[in-house]
Amino acid sequence: MPQLNPYPWFFIMLTSWITYSTILQPKLLPFTLTNPPTTKPMATPKPSSWNWPWT
Questions:
Q1: Which residue has the higher pLDDT, 10 or 38?
Q2: CA-based nearest residue to 23, from 15, 13, 33, 34
Q3: How many CB atoms lie within 10 A of CB 41?
Q4: Distance CA 20, CA 15 (A)
Q5: Collapsed DSSP state (helix, strand, coil) of residue 19
Q6: Predicted confidence band at 17 (pLDDT cuts at 50, 70, 90)?
Q7: Nearest-angstrom CA–CA distance, 45 and 48
Q8: What region does 42 belong to: left with phi over 0, alpha with psi -120 to 50, or beta?
Q9: Nearest residue to 21 via CA among 13, 32, 11, 33
Q10: Mean pLDDT of 3-10
C-alpha cells in the first residue's frame, strides 16, 4: 500500500513548510492591517426606560 510509505509525503510537507517559513512568511508579515485592533473598552449603551402607554 503506497499511501503508508511516509517518504514522499513527509518530504512534500517538509518542503512546503520550509518554503512557507523562509520565503512567504517574512513577505506577509510587514503588511499592515486595514482595521487594527483597538485597546479602548467598548462603551455600553445605557438602556432607556420603557414608557408603557397604559400606566
A1: 10
A2: 15
A3: 6
A4: 9
A5: helix
A6: very high
A7: 9
A8: beta
A9: 13
A10: 78
Map grid coordinates 485592533 to a residue: 37
Cα separation values, 39 from 23, 30, 44, 45, 54, Å: 32, 21, 15, 18, 45
First to last CA, the chain: 80
What are 2's three cell numbers?
503506497
Give the global pTM.
0.46
Residue 53, amino acid: P
The letter for the amino acid at 43 is A
How far is 20 from 14, CA to CA, in rounded Å? Answer: 10
Q: How far is CA 44 from CA 18, 23, 41, 47, in A?
A: 46, 44, 9, 9
